[in-house]
Amino acid sequence: MNAHEIDYHIYGEEMQYVEIELDPQEGVVAESGSFMMMDNEVKMNTIFGDGSNQERGVLGKLFSAGKRLLTGESLFMTVFTNVGQGKKQVSFASPYPGKIIPIDLTEFGGKFICQKDAFLCAAKGVSIGVEFSRKLGRGLFGGEGFIMQKMEGDGMGFIHAGGTMAKKVLQPGEVLKVDTGCIVGFTKEVDYDIEFVGGIRNTVFGGEGLFFATLRGPGTVYIQSLPFSRLAGRVLAMAPQTGRGDRGEGSILGGIGDIIDGDNRF
Q1: Measured in Å, how far apart are the chain's first and last C-alpha atoms?
Q2: How far is Cα 139 from Cα 132, in angstroms, rounded to an integer?
Q3: pTM for the whole thing?
Q4: pLDDT tens digits, residue range 88-109?
Q5: For 161, which DSSP code?
């Protein structure tokens, strides 16, 4: 497998986007909804699956697309190809506040495993597939279910992490305990499992769930400080309820202050 060799530059701090430079006939494959902007001579083409293994014909394309259904993604992806003469740029934006992480698959043995919604885009030729959990407990309680995504090949891929990203390089036998929702991805050598928190008070009153994710080295792992599910949960919890106003946070007068400020929802 020989993926296209692409150059890139990541812009921004909390709301980042990646600009990818394409030589003539080079391409990049991306999830639907991540496109931001492109030069005039970049052609957009919607395809089944990830664009790899196209030489297998119709069955190869259907198999590639079918794998994506298991991860909850669309059957289709979009390929952006430079059909002009000179270098052209195409950009993709992060879906929510966080960091875009470049993954050079040649540095990680040709394979990287990530959570289902972390993938942003990759050089054409990189295979975007599924990784099944072989452990029942991990599948049931690991926060990611039995299925994760994987990138395979020898090109560049880009994933997205919420909040601030932490990169940990684990030595052989070294164990890192992580909240199950905070895992972004890890290399193929890392042993991923779950562990019961333990203790009645921790279990009932700890508020951190019943299980940790345990990541055992050797290998590299990426951790996010703000999973989107956590952010969405906080926003939902603070949203005004039917028949009620909001909580008036940040105001000394609370709800009365909202009325004075002009927020007259009851």
Answers
A1: 61
A2: 9
A3: 0.77
A4: 999 999 888 899 999 999 999 9
A5: E
Let me know if 113 is exposed, middle or buried by CB neighbors in 10 A (0-12, 13-18, 19+).
buried
pLDDT, tens digit (0-9, with 9 covering 90-100), for 29-66: 998 788 999 999 999 998 876 655 555 555 555 555 55
- Amino acid letter for position 40: N
CB atoms within 10 A of CB 211: 19
Tally Cβ neighbours within 10 Å of residue 55: 6
| Among the listed residues 112, 115, 225, the one whose alpha carbon sits nearest the alpha carbon of residue 164 | 225
Q: Tell me 145's DSSP state.
A: T
Q: How far is CA 68 from CA 36, 76, 147, 192, in A?
A: 23, 9, 10, 22
Give the separation between CA 98 and CA 182, rounded to whole angstroms. Answer: 12
What's the token pair of residue 208?
Answer: 């951190």
Neighbours of 166 (CB within 10 A): 16
- Do residues 101 and 184 touch, judged by C-beta distance below 8 A? yes
φ/ψ of residue 204, rounded to 5:
-85, -40
Count the neighbouring beta carbons within 10 Å of the beta carbon of residue 243: 6
